[in-house]
Amino acid sequence: MLLFLCNADCAISVNGPKPFDQILTSSFTTNWTASNSTAVSSIANLKHVILLDAATKSHCLSINASGNNSSLTVTSAGNITSTYGSAMRCMFQLRDRNVESVSATSLNGNYSIHPELFSYSAIDGNATSSASTATNLVVRDFKSYYRSSNATYLVFTITGNASAAKIKATTRLVLSGGNFSTSGTWGPSHWVLMNGTSVSLTTNETIATSFFMADATKLINFEIALGSDFNPGSTPWQTNAFAPFPSLPAAPGAFLSSPLLNSHIVKMDPSYSKQCISGNNSSANATIAASTALDNIIITLAAEGSSLRYDKSVYLAFRENALNHLFASQDLYNSQVGGRTVAHVYFTNAADANDVHHPYMVVASHNATPRPNFLVDVARPPGDGTSGSYQNSTITRTAVIEYKVVLIPLKNYGLVGNFTENTLAVSLASDARLSSANYTVENYADIASMGVAIDGVVIYPSINNTLLYATAAAEITSSGAHVGQGGALHYHADGHGFNGNGINLYNLSDYTKV
Predict the structure, then answer these.
(1) Given pLDDT bands bounded at 50, 70 and 90, which one contains residue 10?
(2) Where are the domains of the chain?
């Protein structure tokens, strides 16, 4: 996804969308203020909130701005809207204790509290796993690949209403043997107290903070409301248990152990590895090598009476932007903040048996978005594919990185006169046993990916394997993606999303009016 702009001389410049880590530092323009904010409709599972002091609405709870998500702080409400980052660091989601297993247990009515930018973390006490009390609150990774073997988090009872709520840390859950169980030592009376500089726990309910639970989606709208474009049938939130993380094909492991960062380069022809950022090969040197490779491809194709499909500048702009998408949230099981979603983009120029060259742009990707995906909110995500009917299936509400090497032809092979002239061994249409008379541009498409977005996430057709639009089936996130049976993300819809919230793959701020 590239943006083509025409300057004053009508020369075309090619640009990519602003990466998410840069969006977070960008100024945020909004009419929203803490003083005019509205409370969530109810204190309930999956609500997205900004926790303001109810008395003055002058302060709110926030995660640390330094990039260290482990600490909580208190922020002046006037700073909430300074940047997208300051806004999102003040956003949290309430999740019922039994959210991952509602079909077997029912909702509990008590909640863990999760930072919007770090969905695999939750608020916890600053004490050891065996402690009966804590003085302060922190944010702790309790679910990702990187969690500690004795990870803990708190479950809160919220009393009152959304305009004046008191929050009590009733239960502490401790990881042991791969499962969480209730701590037998944690005391029952720990109320959240927020002052001008810090947040702590107190055993005195009378001095505990009364919170105004502002609706965070009124500040940045990522909500898929019933009846909206991504859930037109008002499909309710499905209560199936969450699917476990798969071991294959998306192998859960440490991000830095990714073969794309290690063995992939070792196996390359040296003329290609020079185009990759690795070891002593800097980004600048890799860019020069990539540009030189394209120059050589242009010369080779011209000698054979052919040309590139697009101008050289298009491919270089795609490459440069793709390599600048860095994880700026922890919203996949084994992603790592600061790592590149796309490991490498390089250009090959091999010839066939007749010595005719067929150059490709190769995108070696971790197939992961650098932003929050809000997967838990999706109304009806895909089933795991192993349990028969959807009713009996676990469903995909979590994601892992996946190793993808995508080949994009560079050569201009021309255009077909009719879409069926393209050869597909299996299409969505044939897989559904439709006759060729019922083939359309939409259903005569590959059953897997048909492209790759500039953040490295593969793109699937707009309809799914049951020939329903993924949007109509209420199975995708607000940014147009979902998790398939392999546990990895892919787009089924426009990466702009269905609203202009400013935090999608590309946004209105990426465009210039002419």
Answers:
(1) very low
(2) 33-218
Q: Among all chains, which residue has been given the structure tokens 């482990």?
A: 70
Q: Cα(63)–Cα(476) distance, rounded to whole angstroms? A: 28
State the alpha helices, DSSP H only, in 229-377: 263-266, 270-273, 283-303, 312-322
Q: How many CB atoms sit inside 10 A of residue 478's CB?
A: 24
* pLDDT one-digit tens code per residue, 152-163: 999 999 999 999
Buried b (16+ CB within 10 A) or exposed e, 12-41: eebebbbbbbebbeeebeeebebeebebbe
Mapped onto helix, strand or coil, the DSSP state of residue 472 is: coil
The class level of CATH for 33-218 reads mainly beta
Whether the Cβ atoms of residue 166 and residue 205 lie closer than 8 Å to each other: yes
Q: What is the mean pLDDT of the chain?
A: 91
DSSP string, 104-149: HH---S-EEEEETTBTTEEEEESS-TT-S--SBEEEEE-SSTT--T
Q: What residue type is 70 in one-letter code?
A: S
Measure the CA–CA gap between 455 and 19, rounded to whole angstroms: 8
Q: Which residues contact 204 (CB under 8 A, 6 or more apart)?
A: 191
Q: For residue 240, give the nearest of 378, 399, 80 by alpha carbon.
A: 378
Q: Can you give the pLDDT at residue 7?
A: 44
Q: Which has the closest alpha carbon to 508: 73, 57, 18, 13?
A: 18
Distances, alpha carbon 159 to alpha carbons 39, 268, 413, 461, in Å: 15, 60, 65, 46
Structure tokens at 313: 């500048």
Give the burial class of 61: count Cβ atoms within 10 A of its Cβ; 0-12 exposed, 13-18 middle, 19 or more buried. buried
Q: Provide the 8-state DSSP code for 493.
A: S
Whether 386 has a pLDDT exceeding 80, the answer reads no
Predicted local confidence at residue 267, as pLDDT:
87
Taking alpha carbons only, the member of 47, 455, 454 closest to residue 222 is 47
Give Cα 413 distance to the centre of its chain.
35
Tokens representing 196? 């001008």
Three-state secondary structure call for residue 316: helix
Q: Residue 453 is encoded by which pair of tokens?
A: 């977005």
For residue 197, the model assigns a pLDDT of 78
Of all residues in the chain, the percent with pLDDT exceeding 70 is 95
In contact, 37 and 57? CB cutoff 8 Å: yes
Question: pTM to 2 decimals?
Answer: 0.93
